[in-house]
Amino acid sequence: MAGAMSGNASVGPLRASGSLASSFAHCVHAGLTSDTTLTGQAEALYQAGRYFEATIAWDRILFDSQDSTELLTAVLGKTQCLKQQKNYDQAYAFLETWLAYPFPDSGQVRIHSQQILCAYLGGHFENVLSQVDRWSYLHHGVPPDARVLVLKILALNELRRWSEAAADYHQLIAGFHSDTALTDYYAHLPKQKSEAKAEKLSTFIPGAGQFYAGSPFDGLFSICIQAAGIYFGVLSFEQHYYLSAWLIGAALFGAFHMGGVHRAVVLVQHYNRRQMLAFNEKVRVQLLTLISARKGAQ
Amino acid sequence: MVKKRASFCRCLIAAVLAFGLFFPARLFAQQFDFSKELKFAQYLQEKELPSEALYVLLHIDTTHLTRAQKDSLFYQAGWAGYSSQKLDTSARYLNMVSPVYPLYNKSRFFAAYDKAFLGKADTASVLLEALPLTDSIALELRYLQLAGFSLLRRDYTAFRSYQSHFTYQSYIDSKEEQWMQLYYDKLHGFRHKSPVAAGLLSAVVPGLGKYYAGKKRQAIAAFLPVISLAALTYEAYRKDGVKSARFIGFGSIFSIFYIGNIWGSVLSVKIKQNEFNKEYENKILFDLHIPLRNFFN
Fold this sequence. Notes:
Chain A has 298 residues and is mainly alpha-helical. Chain A is built from 13 helices and no strands.
């Protein structure tokens, strides 16, 4: 949280001068807006990129107001500020406390959607799934919003639960009744390579694991450096430098061999991640475009 | 002339009346706003948002506040600083609380703890010693804190003096009193190792100085490369002679590693000592903190 306190939000000495308009609302918003309502000031702070202060302004509304419309605006406004500060976990916990508040159903739906989004942005993909499962229970049998289903599909992809993701994807696509033929991305799932295979390959054939992971330059470098170690060892041995053969040649080969095996595994992990992200991006763009198009048509 | 005078008098009366009516209203408004701000800060604290609470409190204008209001403000700001781990800010504001404030003792105890945590055990001791206490439990708690601060300063005479007041009976801090006694024994009995001896040992057997300093893994990690390089240098000397490039190359690398290992062993004694000190300082601060929270919360 300290990190969030930047710029004008830094802790300074207590103000000992000026008018009692020193009430926070006045002092932090001075010069930002002519809108004197707290909501207007909070929005102005948000627009000015002063997210920490905007969070406090929204909190002030949550503290002051009894009006549920104002409270809902404040909850969503504060969430937006926390997301801008990348405090997704804090936003998730904050929204959890407001899920039980008796907002109208539409408000509850917006809060819950935001909570699921924060879980996704925070990388808590299992939480996304559990929150989507809670949806019908919390919202009296109302099915989840299409955007929420997109988040569920993306979370399933992240967890590499392809068959479940594909089922939800097809169900969602079917609901759009699109006139044009849509690309079924799940017909060709992203190719995921095996870490174990890369490890074995690099153990028995230096550099092969890196080639398998799609990094030929890494593979060539690994082959060269290990070959150099062996060459130095053999040459030294032939010239009767036995200690050099073992302590330099063999040691270099051993160290780079072990490093090469580990590197191959890491490269496969990166490859798989890149593939999954590219696939997720395609699915995300397709689904969100469909949702936007449907909203435009309505 | 008379008209002018009457008009002036009317203006004066109007001004006095306006001031009389407006000034109390203004003061009332200020007090009302202050109370609201304080409640808002408390609300933020309850929501576990101490940084936000601190921000709100530090932006309150203190010009027209009464002494009691200032005390409430300083106490809250100090507490928010403490909760958000801004101990310097916390100590500053807790120290500004006046003796008439009901939570003055608590403010002082925590300000002293903040200071000790920030490595200013001397200032912490001065803060607590000046505190007028009558309650026997609070007195014993102060002796514990002062004894802890003495240990942090490595002032063993002062520790023994404060420790003589321990009853080991108080429900608040009897365990911590025993712990302080143990820490005293450990710190007092700590055998300081010699950096020179560590360096000499590593000169004889590479890595032995680190073993002596208590860094056993590092000793092995230092021994292997130095011995390997020594073997390579010997091989180069035996086969190619002193003037060979091979001998000069390996000999130079060996020398760098050998001297580096000796210097590393000298430093490792100091590092180990610092680690020991840090470990016990953390333990002392932890055990000073628990009874404070138990007593005041």
